[in-house]
Structures are given as C-alpha cells and as structure tokens.
Amino acid sequence: MDLGIAGKWALVCAASKGLGRGCAQALVQEGVNVVINARGAEALEATAAQLRTLAAEWAAAGAGRAAPLVIAVAADITAEAGREAVLAAPGGPGRDFDILVNNAGGPPPGDFRDWNREAWVKALDANMLTPIALIQALVDGMAARGFGRIVNITSSSVKAPIDILGLSNGARSGLTGFVAGIARSPLAARGVTINNLLPGKFDTDRIASTIAAAASKTGKPEAEIRASQQKQIPAGRFGTPDEFGAICAFLCSRQAAYLTGQNILPDGGSYPGTF
Fold first, then answer.
1. Closest to 189 (Cα-Cα) out of 141, 146, 140
2. Whether this model's pTM surpasses 0.70
3. Side by side, which strands form the sheet with 99-102?
4. What are the E-state strand segments in 222-271?
5. What is the pLDDT of residues 1-17, one digit of tens each?
C-alpha cells in the first residue's frame, strides 16, 4: 500500500534507537524526509547513516524518485533551546513539518512517597509539556496547509496504570487528556489528526535493561525472566520496533485521515479489558 506521504517532512523525537527509530525507519521507507532527534550525538549519527542507506534504497526502487533527506539534530528536546535547534536545523523545513512523532523515555519507577516536586516537574516536562510545546509550534502550519499528522508515543500504563510507574501514569495521562480535547477541535476539519500510541512490551534496550535489573535482583538468569514475561503476553512474545513503526506510519498516512483522537494499544493482547 502506498501511504501517500512521500516527500512530506517528519520530526521524530528520541529516534536514535528503540521505538522512535522504528518510526523514523518506517517513514523513510515511505519516502518521507525526516529530522531525527535525540540527546546522544554518536548513536543518533549512526542511526542517521543507516536511515540514509534505506533512503537511497527507496529511491532506487522507483524511477525518478529522489532519496528522502535524513537530518540528525542532537539536542535536549525538553529544553526550549533544544526545540529551537531542531526547528532551525539546516536543510530542514523549519516549522513546516507535516508529521510530528512525539516520544520520550519514561521517568523512573518508584514509590510515590519518595517523589518530590523536582521529580514531578521533570516527568511532566519530558512526557507532557514538551509534546504540547511541539504541537503548539507546528499545528497551525499543518492546518494552514491542510495536512498534519501528530502521533504521541505514550505507554500502555495510560490504559492500565502500574503502581510503581506513578510519574509516567500521571504525566502521560495528562498529555492524553489534553490531546482528547484538541484532536476534536476545528483542527480535525482542516486535515490534522492527533493520535496516541500506547506500547506494551517491545524488544528494545529499555526492556533489556529492566530484565537485567530483575536478574540482578533475583539471581535468576535473564533468559528465564524474558521467557516468563513473554509467556504472560497472549501473543507469546515481545513486539518489535519495526512492527511499531509500521503502525505509526499508517497513522501518518493519507488513508488514516478519518482516524483522530484515538488511543491505540499495540501490546500483543496484554490489556484484559473490553474497552
């Protein structure tokens, strides 16, 4: 299926690895120009090089195609200076992005009694206020051009809260409530869709680190812990970043123009509810 977005410009946050990288890759493979962002310059540049190879392959697969551009900007997107650096990237579209993929690593787990104001503000900055700031910066331009796709990567904990992830539950739920309102504003009639992706367990560095921590704490082999976690998922496995990226790319497509204000839960069937 041709998703109809070749030549568009996308900003993908936290794209050097994991789910953000999967989204950037899927978009490049549809001919989308991407600006990718993360804090770590080395990992980001390595990802950019791999994406440029895919961009060249996409161009070679069709007569007359120009390879989509891949621009890497290493910056702290949670800071105003970092956002300005991304929006002013040489060769980029400035504020004229057609697609925005908001993404950030989750705050640490813990007991809510131990979290002070600073911990809450940091969680809110990364997982609620930064996505809102980027939406504010880009959404009016999208509406003026009659096309916009915003995808916020949140967490399955928005749908099924986890007690030790209170910082994430609170910050991401705040973003979800905000999006529920603006997605149904006049923006919808001007070609702008806003949806959330709520990932369950995907095979990323983050889950590898949690398995390693569990192994260190319990003394059990990592392979045993991994197998135990996968057994609890109806699909019998973790998801892959490629699968996640494909879902994101569809949400950014022209075919998804009638889908907005939704919370989509790719979790292998783990969520036990009907709604």
1. 146
2. yes
3. 70-74, 33-38, 9-12, 99-102, 148-153, 192-197, 263-264
4. 263-264
5. 899 999 999 999 999 99
